[in-house]
Amino acid sequence: MDHPTHCLFHENNRYPEKSWLKFLILRVLYEQPTYGYDIIQKIEELSDGRHKIKSGTMYTTLRRMEKETLVQSSWKKSTSGPDQRQYIVTPQGKDYLKHYLEMIIERKKMIDTMATFYDTHFGGKNR
After folding, report:
1. What CATH architecture is 4-90?
2. Residue 35's closest CA among 23, 45, 25, 50?
3. Are strands 15-16 and 34-35 parallel, antiparallel or unpaired?
């Protein structure tokens, strides 16, 4: 049986879908500007290791988000290696994040209702 988790994640729930990845990136950048590799690490940390993001996917997504004006980047000099591109969330990105969070809160209400239905009708054995 095909399970519905494909709507947010790929390959056994390890890789987040594009829209979810954008949300996670904005979540990380909202706290502080940082670099692509650090974003990958923070997302993995926030998800307790459940979400692995390949660097190619990260940088492609960040470039796309720049075109959408959700993030901005600038080059920062490094004393210990090559210069690095640092990313920050834009006002449009903050607005996108806020609206995405509002949507999640609304969906959580429905998920809670469905979880109660599951517990009642299926015994909640998988929770």
Report:
1. Orthogonal Bundle (1.10)
2. 25
3. unpaired
Please report, for the chain, the start and end positions of each structural domain, with discontinuous segments joined by +: 4-90
User: Whole-model pTM above 0.85?
Assistant: no
The structure tokens listed for 10 are: 């790929």
- Helical (H) or strand (E) element with 16: strand 15-16
Contact 86, 74 (CB under 8 A): yes
Region class of 54: left (phi > 0), else alpha (psi between -120 and 50), else beta: beta
Helices in the chain by DSSP H: which ranges? 18-31, 36-46, 55-67, 91-122
Token digits of residue 115: 């979880």
Q: How far is residue 100 CA from its own chain's centroid?
A: 11
The predicted-structure confidence for 93-116, as pLDDT tens digits, reads as follows 999 999 989 999 999 999 999 999
